[in-house]
Design a protein that fits this description.
The protein has about 150 residues and is mostly beta strands. The chain has one domain (about 1-35, about 50-125): Nucleic acid-binding proteins (OB fold (Dihydrolipoamide Acetyltransferase, E2P)), CATH 2.40.50. The chain is built from two helices and seven strands, in the order E-E-E-E-H-E-E-E-H. The protein has helices spanning about 60-70, 135-140, and strands at about 10-15, 20, 30-40, 45-60, 75-90, 95-105, 120. Strands 1-3-4-6-5 form a five-stranded mixed beta barrel. The longest helix has 10 residues, at about 60-70. It is globular. It starts with 7 loop residues before the first strand and ends in a 10-residue tail after the last helix.
Amino acid sequence: MAKSVNKVILVGNVGKDPEIKVASTGNAIATFSLATTDRTKDQTGNWTDRTEWHNLVAFARTAEIVRDYVKRGSKLYIEGRIQTRSWDDKDGQKKYRTEIIVNDLVLLSGRSEGESSGNYSRSSSSYDQRQPAPGDDIVQSTEITDDDIPF
């Protein structure tokens, strides 16, 4: 059988505060949306933005991290996989929902925004909180504008 890959990498902003539920097993489940924006030039040379909304689900320790540190507007780096669920609604109509199952989560929002920066992985029971490397302040303070891009 040929090898297959189901991996998603997203960097975007949380649309609204995450919803947290607790399963009958006692594990936390966090559901939230993430917006990513694609910027392209149209035929007239004007920049246009296209926002895509992604439905995300996190389980167990990652869901607890989401509960404690993620809020509307938080900037996140997400690694996960795509999964589509289906069910019949009350009228008997088949419904589908495509979600990203979160495996890894990095909080990119700065401390000034009420967030701590850290790397959190579903695969471990504890989390590794990365400290900013020296000189990151210079990199983060340098912003690139559309005028800086040569094409």
